[in-house]
Specification:
Blueprint lengths: L12 E8 L2 E7 L4 E7 L10 H4 L12 E7 L2 E8 L1
Antiparallel strand pairs: 1-2, 2-3, 3-5, 4-5
Amino acid sequence: MKEMIYSAKRTNKILDTGFCFGLLYYILSLGTHPTAYIRLPKKHKLYGKGLEEVGTDIDVHFGITYSENGLYVEDQTIKGWFIG
């Protein structure tokens, strides 16, 4: 895992990636703070659901703020449905 270096400048760099409980995750540095995302499999009950539906099922620090098709990281888009 790379060290989180805080900056006033916005970034989206990968600090860590791997699998946890069989789900692909990414931990990113946005410069001002770290964020975490997981890619949901197509058969998952939250796959394709918007924030208003996802946010009520998951209780995490600062809540779920992302539920989108694809994750933009370091000038590329990673395919799949991500929440974070």
